[in-house]
Amino acid sequence: xxxxxxxxxxxAVLATLSLAACGNKKSSASSSSAEAGASVKLLDNxxxxxxxxxxxxxxxxxxxxxxxxPFQGITDPAxxxxxxxxxxxxxxxxxxLFNQDKNxxxxxxxxxxxxxxxxxxxxxxxxxxxxxxxxxxxxxxxxVEYPYEVIGNKATTSQQFSADFNDIKGMAAYxxxxxxxxxxxxxxxxxxxxxxxxxxxxxxxxxxxxxxxxMWGYVEPYEYIKNVxxxxxxxxxxxxxxxxxxGPYKLNKVVEGxxxxxxxxxxxxxxxxxxKHISIxxxxxxxxxxxxxxxxYDYVSGGLQGTDYKQLKSLKNYHIVGxxxxxxxxxxxxxxHFDTKTGENVMDPKAKMANKNLRKAMLxxxxxxxxxxxxxxxxxxxxNTLLPPVFTNYYNAQEKGYPLNIKKANQLxxxxxxxxxxxxxxxxxxxxxxxxxxxxxxxxxxxAEYQDxxxxxxxIGLDVQFAxxxxxxxxxxxxxxxxxxxxxxxxxxxxxxxxSEPTPTQIYGKEATFNMGHFVSAENTKLxxxxxxxKAWNNSYRTKVFKQWQTYMNQQAAVGPESFGYAWSxxxxxxxxxxxxxxxxxxxxxLALTSKNIQ
Length: 599
Description:
By secondary structure, the protein is an alpha+beta fold. The protein is built from 18 helices and 27 strands. It starts with 5 loop residues before the first strand and ends in a 6-residue tail after the last strand. The model is unreliable at about 1-5 and about 5-35 (pLDDT under 50).
């Protein structure tokens, strides 16, 4: 049930997890917990015993990006909003700052090191002295600070801002347009130096992990893009046509929406990559199985589903590698709008989907256990909360979520006054109720899933139809949902690639532009804040709050959990060094080839 996902770039995407379509995500993981609903167990690496050789490495590693739409082509993590862009530009490293251990805790040794000082409420970022961009420019302290300006600027097209960034001194004033700079950044060695000190109102326990929502995990090439207005940055040639990177590879060529090719970056500070050429091509989900069976690609970066596993699991010369995904599918409901003047989401009590009983009834009407079993083939299972179970400490396994219960769904609608009038129910005031369902174009299997959803909703007397009469192309789908105000889509099926640190402020916070359903409540804000309050340095307390939040969100049914699953890929046996362990900080440099041709 994997769909095209929106990606939270603040998670500090690392190439190590390009397989998961979004990279570096998670806090404390346990495969036993994460795979509780899975009927298949996978290894997170392919231990190829064969030796790599220079002739083979002089060839091309061929990667498929399974996607039904062209990628947008935004190379800047601060401006990108979907996982597909992250995938196709992953060999460039995306300017990731910090290395991490197996639990995504920040460790020394990356592009920069991090030091937290709770007494002074500061975070010191020290860039390694030999760090360079792929055009030879030095990575500077200003490069660490500038993405905060891009994200927080009033004119930005970035979707990454959330209220958590306001914990940085001066960010609130900058974000409101009352200051030209962010006062909380200081430079002990000057802006061209390699040290930045970030001054916070308070530090949080989440800051120990990559992907936290209080600090940005990437650098931005300030000198290269400083003359481009932030409002026009996403469309600039510096981002679209001639981007520069800090990772193992530099971009050789991009065919808009279709493919990227890469060659080693000679200015890389660390371990040089072994493979001399990489190509990443978008392949339709309808053609991906045949492409792998025909040995056109070494592995697939994101987008595979359970039906693909059925077709590819027994394929000779390929090994299935995967890990519990740091993403989930969900149902969203349109409950209001985003006020561009105040920078806050606003709930509309008169919104079509404002009635909680209506939303709960729609979720109870779905037979997600059957759907995931029929189409998932062990790769996906019904979700019970809005937090993937890979977050072992925080996942609430006691929550039931929304298992099929048609009787309860009908009772909820009856109690709320949605009465049957002929085939369908009406609004409590007697007027017709037509609900527009937003879905993305995809495979025949995804279409079958959507039809099942519609069928189930019709069973409880709800007139639910595709928004616009049919599933929408991915970019059009998200363009509609990300508009500050929209009435085209009332309920939708989407997917999140979530951060390696599980605080969900960026998705469900009051000021989050990714909060596309515009759900806001005092209790939600309170729980989100408590996840990183002073008491939360006690992990038992923090765990309690996370579990309370999951229970609360299920009670509100503003967003409904749909499915969890694996991120996986078939990996050709000529590939050596392939691992999706979060502790593999040199994914691209560790890859090698043992033969010239795909076997």
